[in-house]
């Protein structure tokens, strides 16, 4: 019985020391200070870091005034210690903490000034294209007439009462 208590103590101690895998990434940009969106959710200005849960593809969008918006689909590959059955030992048995930190750096291009004459030409082309599109055909289907529900007892209430009669002008004549 004494040896089982010792074994139980060792297992409890190992379970309390069991580590985990800390998954995170750090995003930097040139120039710094670009706002980063991960899958449509804002993260903050670069340099920015965040935790991630799964390995796979993430969409990062970087936005900064004076620079073109950068959209990157970044694949985060699975490391060898996260494949079955090794992942069980890496996350539950290994006594230390495993840190999987990824670093991504993106270069942003300065925004190109758009010439006004080119922009006006594109607008006119779009306007001309819009004029060539035929309007949609009117549907011939009319809605069915609305019939009131039958009354349970008594007269049916008027659905649309007639408008009130305009007042008749009175003319005062001689001798009245």
Enter the CATH topology name of the domain at 19-107. Immunoglobulin-like
Average predicted confidence as pLDDT: 80
- The helical percent reads 10-25%
Largest sheet composition:
4 strands, antiparallel
What coarse outline follows from CA principal-axis ratios?
A: elongated
Unreliable runs, pLDDT <50, ≥5 residues? none
Question: What is the H-and-E element order?
Answer: HEEEEEEHEH
Beta content: 25-35%
Q: How many angstroms does the end-to-end distance come to?
A: 128 Å
Number of strands: 7
Question: How many helices in DSSP terms?
Answer: 3
Which structural category fits the helices and strands?
alpha+beta
Indicate the radius of gyration in whole angstroms: 37 Å
Q: Which strand order spans the largest sheet, edge to edge or round the barrel?
A: 3-2-5-6
Q: Using the 3D structure, state the CATH architecture of the domain at 19-107.
A: Sandwich
CATH class of the domain at 19-107: Mainly Beta
Kindly describe this structure.
- The protein is an alpha+beta fold and 176 residues long.
- 23% of the residues lie in helices and 27% in strands.
- The chain has a domain at 19-107: Immunoglobulin-like (Sandwich).
- Strand 2 and strand 3 (41-45) form a beta hairpin.
- It starts with a helix and ends in a 44-residue tail after the last helix.
């Amino acid at each position: 019985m004494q040896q089982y208590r010792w074994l139980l103590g060792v297992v409890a101690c190992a379970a309390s020391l069991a580590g985990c895998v800390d998954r995170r990434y750090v995003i930097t940009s040139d120039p710094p200070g670009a706002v980063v969106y991960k899958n449509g959710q804002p993260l903050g200005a670069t340099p920015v870091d965040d935790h991630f849960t799964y390995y796979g593809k993430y969409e990062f969008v970087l936005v900064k005034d004076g620079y073109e918006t950068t959209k990157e689909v970044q694949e985060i590959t699975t490391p060898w210690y996260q494949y079955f059955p090794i992942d069980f030992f890496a996350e539950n048995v290994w006594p230390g903490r495993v840190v999987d930190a990824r670093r991504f750096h993106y270069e942003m291009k300065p925004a190109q000034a758009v010439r006004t004459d080119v922009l006006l030409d594109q607008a006119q082309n779009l306007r001309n294209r819009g004029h060539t599109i035929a309007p949609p055909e009117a549907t011939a289907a009319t809605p069915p007439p609305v019939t009131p529900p039958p009354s349970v007892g008594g007269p049916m209430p008027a659905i649309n009462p007639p408008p009130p009669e305009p007042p008749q002008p009175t003319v005062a004549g001689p001798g009245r």
